[in-house]
Each structure stands twice: as C-alpha cells, then as structure tokens.
Amino acid sequence: MVDYIKWAEEYMENAEIVKGNIEKIKDKIRIAPPEKKSTFYELLGKYRTIYYESLKTAEFLRNRSVESGRECHIM
User: Fold this and answer.
1) What's this model's pTM, rounded to 2 decimal places?
2) Which residues, at least 6 apart from 8, have a Cβ–Cβ distance to it below 8 Å?
C-alpha cells in the first residue's frame, strides 16, 4: 500500500528546500551586474515552477490519502 501521507510530506520538504534556493537566487539578482540578471531571472522562473509543482503534487497526494481513507494534515 502506498503511504500517500509520507509521500506528500517528502514533496513538502523538497518544496521548502527549493523555496530556500529561490531566496538565494533573489539575493544574487540584487547584486548581479545588469548583463547577468536575465540569467538569474530565468533560473528563478524554473525554480518557481518546481516549487509550485511540488506544492500541487503534495496537495494531490494529500487528497489521494483522504480518498484512500487515511487523513493527511500537512498544509
């Protein structure tokens, strides 16, 4: 049997790691020379996509745990 709760929690943990990386990228954007900023903005967009996808996947898994009869309270 799949442990949807544990799986959802892993996605939430990964989302928090990605969120920390997003903050680091924002700091780099603030100090980067103008010609490098676009590279960091592109990277920021990719990390934001990963972050939001992780949150959506965690939510999906949480809902799946409820459907399978197990409650999950991670958010």
Assistant:
1) 0.82
2) 57, 58, 59, 61, 62, 65, 72, 74
- Please check whether residue 72 is in contact with residue 5, taking contact to mean a CB–CB distance below 8 angstroms: yes
For residues 31 and 65, what is the distance between their CA atoms, to the nearest angstrom? 44
Can you tell me the distance from the alpha carbon of 75 to that of 59, in angstroms, rounded to the nearest whole number? 8
Residue with tokens 């996509």: 49
Listed in sequence order, the DSSP H helices in the chain are 4-31, 34-67
| Spatial distance between the Cα atoms of 36 and 41, rounded to a whole number of angstroms | 9
What is the tens place of the pLDDT at every residue in 13-71? 999 999 999 999 999 999 999 999 999 999 999 999 999 999 999 999 999 988 776 55
Q: State the DSSP code for 32.
A: S
